[in-house]
Design a protein that fits this description.
This is Solute carrier family 25 member 46. It holds the Pfam family zf-HC5HC2H. Keywords: Membrane, Metal-binding, Mitochondrion, Mitochondrion outer membrane, Repeat, Transmembrane, Transmembrane helix, Transport, Zinc, Zinc-finger. With 554 residues, the protein is mainly α. It has three domains: 98 residues, 2-Layer Sandwich (Herpes Virus-1), CATH 3.30.40; 131 residues, no CATH class; 271 residues, Mitochondrial carrier fold, CATH 1.50.40.10. The strands form five sheets. A two-stranded antiparallel ribbon has the order 1-2. The structure holds zinc ion (5 copies).
């Protein structure tokens, strides 16, 4: 069974806490507590310990669209509470990548880059006071999340996992294993990501203090000789000096100041959930705006080369292959002189529409619960995409010198080509997602140190470019075949890119996709599949230039 929130089925009582199963649903208790935007609205015995099923499933729909910064999968349910950080991650990925969760209201989480750095560092020979093993693992690097210093008695260090195990065993009586401190120790540990699902009530804390006082009294009056009976009567004054609401700052010497407490109190002054919904997105917003702007500019500036690339690509009989961009330069000047600048933006509107619709197709997720309507809707969008693709292609390659007849749809069989087109698109998306993952991983390895958001943004633009180059190069031959098939029998007249001044009609008689492959190999050789690749190289160049400029701007 998978957790409703993080979509993981992994269970580990000690690391991830208990795994609740209710009817056919399951969830990590910690996911319920920590997921951002999810509140406990019922009493403890309702649904998931007071987290209503309806709330959980509405959050689930939302998390479906959020991808994890560590594993890139969907259902990222935690959000870094640093206001300059927009990272989202899975509860489990967070634990494995040294993010911190605070098990104290308002249950913030911090990604590994924004965990507050403690003032104290352990000595390299320091050992864990619970397991007596060396505190450090092989890496010998201090990690503030997995190595915790006792807040009550100085300079005792613990492995987080050891203290976590200890906390779960201790339950309500979870206290410092060295000095038995309860309140301060427990509070700090909860803030540092150690959870215990059995928190004592205020009365129990009060009782704890009473017991402590009784013990102190007894020790005071205890006779030195063990054999003699206890003579002094036990009289206990009400412990008026205990104030449960006092500020924790008072407990700290000035040099013992802990940043986590500051964080906690600082955040508490705001309304918790309000904070999540209106984060300060100024710098991030600028970067996203810049990225979108660059995307549009990229499409506009690349289109002339798309025109050249596609015209060369579909021409079966042309003598020049234009695999490198240099041969295109004289053609560009000739075309411009003869037909004006409009020749380079033919079919731009259609291709923009296609980009928009395909974006809609890929990002449409909100019919999670009605699969049939969802599939039907996607099917309709796919057909629209296909029609736009065919017409965009016709508009792009058709010459301006002669009027082309605008028949909607393609000349040859509609449905077989539709399915070929759709499967090619799917293959491209899957491949590019994979390529993106790999390049991103390589980039992350290259620079593991802290990066600010702007640099992150620029990094994704770079990975986008690399992914695009790889994907389009790999799929270019398939695209060539598809484009040739799409234009068969459409009576399209194109510019002749051998001369740049004449026009020519397309006459092809492929019996099918296979035949198209064979004919291409036979007539043009394997090189024929990369006809017009020079145009694509120029598009990459424009894209790269834009990435460079964006980097300079941000
Ligand atoms: Zn979970
Ligand atoms: Zn993840
Ligand atoms: Zn962060
Ligand atoms: Zn240990
Ligand atoms: Zn202690």
């Amino acid at each position: 069974m998978k957790c409703e929130l993080c979509d993981s089925s992994r269970q580990d009582e000690i690391q991830f806490g208990s795994f609740l199963i209710r009817y056919d649903k399951a969830a990590h208790l910690n996911c319920l507590i920590l997921s951002y935007g999810l509140k406990q609205r019922g009493s403890d015995n309702v649904d998931f310990n007071g987290y209503l099923f309806s709330d959980v499933s509405s959050r689930r729909r939302y998390f479906y669209k959020q991808s994890c910064c560590y594993c890139n999968e969907r259902y990222a349910n935690l959000k870094c509470a640093n206001k300059h950080c927009q990272r989202l991650f899975h509860f489990i990925c967070g634990i494995e990548n040294r993010a911190r969760n605070q098990y104290v209201k308002p249950y913030f989480s911090y990604c590994n880059q924004h965990v507050t750095k403690p003032k104290y560092r352990p000595k390299s020979t320091e050992f864990c006071c619970i397991c007596y093993d060396n505190l450090f693992d092989e890496s010998k690097r201090f990690c503030p999340v997995t190595m915790l210093r006792s807040p009550c008695c100085r300079d005792n260090w613990f492995h987080k996992l050891c203290i976590q195990r200890y906390a779960l065993e201790g339950g309500r009586s979870f206290r410092c294993p060295i000095c038995n401190n309860t309140e301060k120790f427990r509070k700090s540990m909860l803030l540092w990501g150690v959870f215990t699902h059995d928190n004592p009530t205020e009365e129990e804390i009060f009782q704890e203090h009473m017991d402590h006082l009784i013990v102190m009294r007894r020790e005071l009056f205890e006779p030195q000789d063990e054999d003699e009976p206890l003579v002094a009567p036990l009289q206990i004054d009400p412990p008026l000096e205990i104030n449960f609401n006092h500020d924790y700052h008072d407990d700290y010497d000035s040099d013992d100041y802990d940043y986590d407490y500051y964080d906690y109190y600082h955040h508490n002054r705001f309304n918790n959930y309000h904070y999540f919904q209106t984060p300060d997105e100024k710098s991030k917003g600028f970067c996203i705006g810049l990225k979108r702007f660059c995307c549009v500019i990229n499409n506009v500036l690349c289109h002339p080369f798309v025109v050249l690339q596609q015209q060369s690509q579909i021409n079966v009989v042309s003598k020049s292959y234009h695999i490198l961009p240099f041969s295109l330069v004289p053609i560009i000047t000739k075309l411009y002189r003869q037909q004006g600048w409009l020749v380079f933006w033919k079919g731009f509107f259609e291709s923009l529409c296609l980009k928009g619709v395909s974006l809609l197709f890929r990002n449409l997720h909100f019919f999670d619960e009605m699969p049939f309507i969802y599939v039907g809707f996607k099917g309709v969008i796919a057909v629209i995409m296909f029609v736009l693709k065919v017409n965009g292609l016709k508009m792009t390659v058709g010459t301006l010198m002669l009027p082309n007849d605008n028949i909607i749809g393609c000349g040859s069989k509609f449905w077989p080509l539709f399915f070929i087109y759709l499967s090619l698109e799917f293959a491209k998306w899957t491949f590019s997602a994979l390529a993106k993952k790999i390049t991103r991983a390589l980039f992350r390895n290259k620079s593991t140190e802290r990066r600010i958001i702007a640099e992150d943004q620029e990094c994704t633009m770079q990975t986008d470019l690399i992914t695009r180059i790889i994907t389009e190069t790999v799929f270019y031959p398939c695209e060539t075949v598809l484009h040739r098939m799409l234009l068969q029998n459409t009576n399209t007249i194109i510019d002749n890119l051998d001369t740049g001044t004449t026009v020519m009609p397309i006459f092809t008689y492929f019996k099918g996709t296979k035949d198209c492959f064979k004919t291409t190999v036979g007539m043009e050789g394997y090189k024929g599949f990369y006809k017009g690749f020079g145009g694509l190289i120029l598009q990459f160049a424009v894209h790269a230039a834009i990435v460079k400029i964006a980097k300079w701007l941000s």
